[in-house]
Structures are given as structure tokens and as C-alpha cells.
Amino acid sequence: MSRSKNHVPGEVGIWIFILGDMVIFGLFFLVYVYYRGLDIELYRQSQLQLNQHYGALNTLLLLASSWFVVMGVEKARQGLGQKAAPFFASALACGLGFSAVKVVEYGEKLAADITITSNDFFMYYYIFTGLHFLHVVIGMGVLTFMILKTRAKHFQSNDMIMVESGASFWHLVDLLWIVLFPLLYLMP
Amino acid sequence: MNIRSQLLCAWCGVVFLVLFTIGWVLLARFLPPPSPSLGAEEVAAIYQQNTGAIRFGLMLAMIAGGLTAPWVAVIANQMRRIEGNSPVLTYTMLVAGAVGVVILVLPTMTWTVAAFRPERAPELILLLNDFGWLLFVMTFSPFFVQNMAIGLAIFSDFASEPVFPRWLGYFNIWVAILFVPGGLITFFKTGPFAWDGILAFWLPLVIFFAWFLVMFVVLLQTIRRQANGI
Fold first, then answer.
1. CB-based contact, B105 to chain A, within 8 Å
2. Rounded to two decimals, what is the model's pTM?
3. Are A145 and A166 spatial neighbours (Cβ–Cβ below 8 Å)?
4. Residue A4 banded pLDDT, cuts 50, 70, 90
5. Roughly what angle, to the nearest 10 degrees, separates helices B68-83 and B3-20?
6. Which residues, 6 or more positions from A85, have their beta carbon under 8 angstroms from its beta carbon?
């Protein structure tokens, strides 16, 4: 497959979706930072109740998953669909790990009677991480699709566009978390 | 190919936008929404002071709501061209779209009941006002399903000359996801996720209007291509 320096990965439409999604999350984050500034003590106090280890572990899991996806796309570009599939499967495993940590984390918060209505900080915490988690779930579906595509006998350059689109979406999932993690868990 | 009827149906979408804006925004003055944190007396005062304009504005908004039926039908008709023999996504879109018509019409009637006897106990006005707003803002699920069905149908179009451009599929799925925060208003009386909040109300509302305009422009192009036999 020929590729120029100006190659846009995946189909153009996926970038409309990705940029649109980033604009929306960008707006979410601006709203959060604005309201945080109005009542900074409450946000600081509440933030201390989050378990940073869970957040950090999930960051590592998603960064690793993105690396696996990059390696998988490299293999697929060389036409080695069979070798790409295990990388995508590893990324999927990271996604499952992320989900497990998230479930444990939500469980602990709910057990401690911290809910979406506890205060403004936890409202944002549940909604932002919940919407991001929705992206993770969709992303794991996409990864599964990519595994099936690359494992198929007739992997062709046409399928490559699909693989690149899926990979771009998974990087978006990672990117959003990279912003979300410091915003909710670390911001002083 | 009843091109004329299709164009008529597509224009209904635009007429809906204009008529709904005149009735609901300019006459009833429901934009910006009354805060969900207002007390019964304050909410009752809104209906008591602006009674005539609210009644007439909501009547226009109710009429506008019905015009989304032909609008949904013309989208379904074009989706059917993609799906051919077993148009399940088209049916999904049609059913969800029909429910959408109800969701646009029913709140106007709920608020109309409040404006019908504005002198009744303020607590009852508050109840009807709550009911109308929750019905109007929170019910994202039919619209979500409708837009997802359009998006997935466009993705399934592998013809050399696709009915809709593929980016429209991504656009519809993006719009579908943007409706989701509306579902959170049950938890809040203030802030960005209340029924007058920027993320649960303003953002989905603006996107909802923009969706009509984008779909309208693309529909006109699609119908024109169909008329030219492509």
C-alpha cells in the first residue's frame, strides 16, 4: 500500500467524530475548572477522598493499551494481520483491566455513601468518568472488531482503513483519560 | 419517485424549527428555562403574568411538533434505499422518530394544562411545570436510538454511489451521544446538569437544532441526486 507523508489514518469521517468529541469534553473540562474555581476548598477536600492509586493504575493500563494498538497497526500495515491480532487482544485485556478497576473504585465510593448527589465534585466525578467509561466500553467493542478483522484470512488494504479508524478511536479514549486523570485526581 | 412530496417533507423540518422558535421561544418565552430551583409561588407567577402568550405560543409549538412526522418519513425513505429488502434500521428510526413526535408535543400540552387555570394552587402549577420540563429535556432515549439508527445505516452503505455521505453517519452518532447528559437532570436543581444547565440543556438543544439544518441540507442534495437517477 502506498502512503504519502500527508496520510490521514482511517477514514476522514472518524476525525469529524473525534474532533467533535474532543470539543465536547473540552467544554466539559472548562465548565469543571470554572465551577472548581468558585469553591476550591470543597473540591480539594473531596479530591482527597479519591484513591490516586486506582487512577494511576488505570492511566498505566490505558497508556500500555495505546502502545499495543500502535504495534498492532504497524504489523497490520505490513500486511501481517495474524501478528497484529495478539497486540489488539492485549489492548483489549488492558481495557478489561481498566473496567475492573473502575468497578472496584465505584463500588468503594458507593459503599462509603458517596454518590452523584453528595456534592458538586462527585457529580463531576461520576458523570465525567461515567461518560469516559462509556467510551471505553464502545472502544472494547471496536477492538474486538479489529481482532476479528485482522485474524480473518482475507485481510486486505481495504480493512486497513477500518483498523486505522478503530485505532484512532482507541487513542481518543486514552487521550481523554490522560486529561481527566489530573483534572479529577491530581489538580492542586 | 415523488420528488415533490419528498421535498415537501424535508421542508417540514425547517418549518418545525421556525414555528417552534416563534411559539416556544418568542411567545411563551420558555427560553431560558425557569430554574428547577424556583419555588411554587415563583413558578406560578410566570404562568399568571404571561398567560395569553404562553397559551398561544404553546399552541404553535404543539402544531410545529406534528411537522416532524413527515420529516422523519423522508429520512426513513432515503434510509430504505440503503437497506433494501429488510430495512430494520429504517423501521427502528421510524418508530423512534414517531415517539420523538410525541415527546415534542406532550410537554407543550403539560405546560398548557398549567396555563389553563393559572389561578389554581401554586403547588399544582409547580408539579405540571416540573412534569413538562422533565418530559421535554430528560427523554433522550428515543432521539438517541433514532440518530444511532441513521448512523449505523449510513455505515452499512457500501454502494459505489452511497445514498448519504459517510461523514453524516459519524455526525449522527456524535449527536446521539450529545443527547445523553439530558438524562441526568433528575438528580439536580442547579448547575450544568440541571434542566437549565449548559451541558444537560443548552448543548443538546443547540445540537438538536443544528442536526435539523445539517440533515436538511444533505437531504436536499440526496433527493436531487435521486431525481437525476444516480
1. no
2. 0.86
3. yes
4. low
5. 140
6. A72, A147, A150, A151
- What tens digit of pLDDT does each residue of B81-115 get? 999 999 999 999 999 999 999 999 999 999 999 99
**Between chains, do B180 and A120 touch, taking CB under 8 Å as contact?**
no
Q: Which of B152, B174, B190, B214 to mutate to test the interface with A (most CBs of A within 10 A)?
A: B174
Q: What is the dihedral angle through the alpha carbons of A69, A74, A79, A84, rounded to the nearest 10 degrees?
A: -30
Could you give the 3-state DSSP secondary structure of residue B158?
Answer: coil
Q: Does the structure show a pLDDT above 50 at A1?
A: no
pLDDT in tens, A34-48: 999 999 999 999 999
Q: Which pLDDT tens digit goes with each residue over B205-222? A: 999 999 999 999 999 999
CB contacts < 8 A, A to B, total: 47
Amino acid, single-letter form, for residue A80: L
Domain ranges of chain B: 3-227
Grid cell of B193 as nine digits: 446538569
Question: pLDDT grade, residue A156 (50/70/90)?
Answer: confident
Whole-angstrom distance, CA of residue A133 vs CA of residue A75: 28
- Number of Cα atoms under 13 Å in the Cβ half of residue B49: 7
Nearest chain A Cα to B186, which residue?
A117
- Interface-testing mutation among B160, B170, B188, with chain A (most A C-beta atoms within 10 A): B170
Alpha-carbon gap, residue A78 to A141, rounded angstroms: 24
User: B180: Cβ–Cβ under 8 A, 6 or more apart, which residues?
Assistant: A131, A134, B140, B144
Long-range contacts of A149-152 (CB under 8 A, 24+ apart): A149/A81, A150/A72, A150/A76, A150/A81, A150/A82, A150/A84, A150/A85, A150/A88, A151/A81, A151/A82, A151/A85, A152/A81
CATH 1.20.120.80 describes domain A12-186: yes
